[in-house]
Amino acid sequence: MVAAASGWSWNVVTDVRHLFAYPFMVNAFLAGTVVAVAAAVVGWFMVLRRQTFAGHTLALIGFPGAAGATLIGVSASAGYFAFAIVGALVVASTRGSGTAYRGFSEESAVVGTVQAFALAAGFLFVALYQGFLNGINSLLFGTFLGITIGQVWVLLVVAVAALVVLGLIGRPLLFASVDPDVAAARGVRVRLLGVLFLVLLGAAVAEASQITGSLLVFALLVMPAAAAQRFTARPVVGLALSVVIALIVTWVGLAVAYYSPYPMGFYITTFAFAVYLASFAVRYILDRHRPVPRVALGPRVGT
Questions:
Q1: For the chain: N or C, fewer Cβ within 10 A?
Q2: 232: CB partners within 8 A, 6+ apart
Q3: What is the pLDDT of the chain when averaged over all its residues?
Q4: What is the crossing angle of helices 264-288 and 235-258, to 10°?
C-alpha cells in the first residue's frame, strides 16, 4: 500500500529495519498486535457459541458510528466503540426471557433489520460528510495509515479490560456455551453471561474494525478462531492457537501491504482464509492417521 521507494530487497534484516523506520508503521504493528490478541480470544468464544451473525451485525453497526463521529468532528474510534457496545446491548435486549442460550434463530429478523438500517445510516453520514471516497474505504476495509500512539493506548486499555473480564467469567461462560441447559440447571446465570459476552464482543469488534474495517472484521474475529477449533478441541490450546494465528496473519499482512500497492485488509483476510483452508487439510490428515481403537475380539452373538 505504501510501496516503499526501495521496494522489497530480499534482505530480511534490511527490510525489517526499513519496515519500522516510520512511526506510523510502528503504531500500526502495535495496534495490530493488540487488536489481534483481543479479537482472537473473544472470537474463539464467539465461534464456540455460534454467534458469528452477532459479530457481523455489530461490525456493521460500528460503521455508522464511525461515520457519524467523523461527521461531527469526533474520533472515529469513539464512534466504533459507542455504536458497537450500544448495539450489543440492543441485540441482547431482543433475546427471549428464558435463561437458556438458544442461538440467534429467535431474533434473527430483528438483528437483520437493525443491520440493514445501520448500513443505510452509515452511508447517509458519509454522504453528509462529503469527504473523500478513501474515507469510506477506510471505514469499510480498514487502513493502517494515521494510527496515532494515543489510539494505540486506547486500544490497549480496552483490550486489557475486555480480556480481564473474559478471564473472570471464562469458566462459567465456557460451561454455558457448551451446554446452556445443564449450566442453567447448575445455577449458572446463563442470560447474564450472554449479555456480558455480547458487550465484550462489541468492544472486540470495535477494535478489529479499526484495523480491518467493518466489512473485513471476520478476518481477525472468526477465521483464526475457526481454524484453531478445527486443529484442536482443547480450550486452552485452542485459545492460544487462535492468538498465534491472528498475530501471524496480522504481522505478515501489514508487512506485505507496506511493500505493496494493494490494501492491507485484502492481505490480512487472504492469509487468514489460507490458514482456515489449511485447517481442513490438517484435520483430514490427523483423522486419517488417528489410531483406531482396538475392539475386543470374542464370539459374536448369533455366530
A1: C
A2: 238, 241
A3: 81
A4: 140
